[in-house]
């Protein structure tokens, strides 16, 4: 895996935009995007800065051992740890992509269920208001 691939992956793992990264590095979005596309040479000082931003060692950032799988861990605000695995083996990458699609589908289903629950709660609230109005008229 090339350094620019690792930089893009680490940015995505941290759920940062290219704009966020450009700001953190004190450079233009275009300049940062060129780093991620491999269209710009990354000087040592930028490598050090990237490693600090991602909270990884410089050697982890610049190692290009194709046989060694890469794991990136990120702790979010709810104390959950998110792990991302990256490797060059095609079968593993396909399996990872399949798993991501399943996860996306599950998240979509959860969102739909949440919307249905919200809709039902609104219906219950409206029915309770109708019941209260009917009770007031009968009094």
What would your notes on this structure say?
InterPro entries: Cro/C1-type_HTH, Lambda_DNA-bd_dom_sf, TransReg_Diox_bact_type. GO terms for molecular function: DNA binding; DNA-binding transcription factor activity. This is Putative transcriptional regulator. Keywords: Coiled coil, DNA-binding. Pfam families: HTH_3 (PF01381). This protein is mainly α and 139 residues long. It has 2 domains: 86 residues, lambda repressor-like DNA-binding domains (434 Repressor (Amino-terminal Domain)), CATH 1.10.260; 51 residues. Helix content is 67%, strand content 9%. The chain is built from 6 helices and 2 strands. A two-stranded antiparallel sheet has the order 1-2. Helix 2 packs across helix 3. The model has no long low-confidence stretch (mean pLDDT 83).
CATH architecture of the largest domain: Orthogonal Bundle
Q: Provide the succession of SSEs.
A: HHHHHEEH
Major β-sheet annotation: 2 strands, antiparallel
User: Quick one: CATH superfamily of the largest domain?
Assistant: lambda repressor-like DNA-binding domains
Number of domains: 2
Instruction: Categorize the overall geometry.
Output: elongated
Distance between the termini: 76 Å
Helix percent reads 55-70%
Strand fraction equals 5-15%
Q: Helix/strand/pairing class, anyone?
A: mainly alpha
Which radius of gyration do the C-alpha atoms yield? 24 Å
Write the CATH fold name of the largest domain. 434 Repressor (Amino-terminal Domain)
What strand line-up does the widest sheet have? 1-2
Broad CATH class of the largest domain: Mainly Alpha
Poorly predicted tracts of residues: none
Secondary structure: number of strands? 2
Number of helices, where a helix is a run of at least 4 consecutive DSSP H or I residues: 6
Q: Please, what is the average pLDDT?
A: 83
Pfam families: HTH_3 (PF01381)
GO molecular function: DNA binding; DNA-binding transcription factor activity
Keywords: Coiled coil, DNA-binding
InterPro entries: Cro/C1-type_HTH, Lambda_DNA-bd_dom_sf, TransReg_Diox_bact_type
């Amino acid at each position: 895996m090339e350094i620019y691939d690792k930089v893009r992956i680490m940015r995505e793992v941290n759920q940062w935009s290219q704009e966020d990264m450009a700001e953190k590095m004190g450079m233009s979005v275009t300049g940062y995007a060129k780093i991620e596309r491999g269209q710009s040479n990354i000087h040592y000082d930028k490598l050090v800065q990237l490693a600090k931003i991602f909270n990884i060692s410089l050697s982890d950032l610049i190692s290009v051992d194709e046989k060694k799988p890469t794991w990136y861990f990120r702790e979010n605000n709810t104390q959950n740890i998110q792990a991302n695995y990256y490797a060059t083996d095609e079968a593993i990458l396909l399996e990872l992509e399949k798993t991501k699609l399943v996860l996306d589908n599950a998240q979509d289903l959860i969102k739909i269920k949440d919307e249905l629950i919200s809709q039902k709660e609104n219906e219950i609230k409206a029915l309770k208001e109708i019941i209260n109005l009917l009770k007031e008229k009968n009094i």
